[in-house]
Amino acid sequence: MAGRWRPTGGLVPLLLPPLLLLLLLRRAEAAHIKKAEAAAYTAATNASVAVAAPAMHYLDEAELASSLRSLAENEAPPGLARLFSIGRSGEGRELWVLRLSANLPEVEAGPEGVPGGPPIAGRPQVKLVANMHGDETLGRALLVRLARELVSGWLRGDPRLRRLLNSTDLYLMPSLNPDGFARATEGDCAGAGGDRQTGAGSGRENARGRDLNRSFPDQYGSAQPDLAAVPEVRALMEWMRRNRFVLSANLHGGSVVASYPYDDSAVHQSTGLYSKSPDDEVFKYLAKAYASNHPIMKTGTPNCPGEENEVFEGGITNGAQWYDVPGGMQDYNYVWANCFEVTFELSCCKYPPASQLEVEWENNRESLLTFIEKVHIGIKGFVRDAVTQAGLENATIAVAGIAHNITTGRFGDYHRLLVPGTYNITAAVVGYRPVTIVNVEVKEGNATTVDFSLEPTIAVLISEPTQDAPVPATDSATNATNVTSTERPTPTHQAIQPKDFRHHHFPDMEIFLRKYANEYPSITRLYSVGKSVEQRELYVMEISDNPGIHELGEPEFKYIGNMHGNEVVGRELLLNLIEYLCKNYGTDPEVTDLVQKTRIHIMPSMNPDGYEKSQEGDREGTLGRNNSNNYDLNRNFPDQFFQISDPLQPETMAVMNWLKTYPFVLSANLHGGSLVVNYPYDDDQRGIATYSKSPDDSLFQQIALSYAKENVQMFQGHPCAEMYPDEYFPHGITNGAHWYNVPGGMQDWNYLNTNCFELTIELGCVKYPKADELPRYWEQNRRSLLQFIKQVHRGVKGFVLDATDGQGILNATISVANIDHPVSTYTGGDYWRLLVQGTYKITASARGYNSETKTVKVGNKSAVQVNFTLTRKDSKMEEGKVPDINMADVSDPVTKEFEMLIKNLSAENGLEHLLLTSTADVLPYRYRPYKDLSMFLRGLNLNYPLITNLTSLGQSVEFRQIWSLEISNKPNQSEPEEPKIRFVAGVHGNAPVGTELLLALAEFLCMNYQKNLAITKLIDKTRIVIVPSLNPDGREIAQERDCTSKIGQTNAHGKDLDTDFTSNSSQQSRVQEPETKAIIENLIMKQDFSLSVALDGGSLLVTYPYDKPVQTVENRETMRHLASLYANNHPTMYLGQSSCPNKSDENIPGGVMLGAEWHSHLGSMKDFSVDYGHCPEITVYTGCCYFPGAGQLPTLWAENKKSLLAMLVEVHKGIYGLVQDRHGRPVLKVEIVLNERVKVSTKEGGYFHVLLAPGYHNLHAKADGYQQQRIQVLVHHDVATFVHIQFDMDNRIFGLPRELVVTVAGATMSALLLTACIIWCVCSIKSNRHKDGFHRLRQHHDDYEDEIRMMSTGSKKSLLSHEFQDETDTEEETLYSSKH
Question: Considering the entire predicted model, what is its pTM?
Answer without folding.
Answer: 0.51
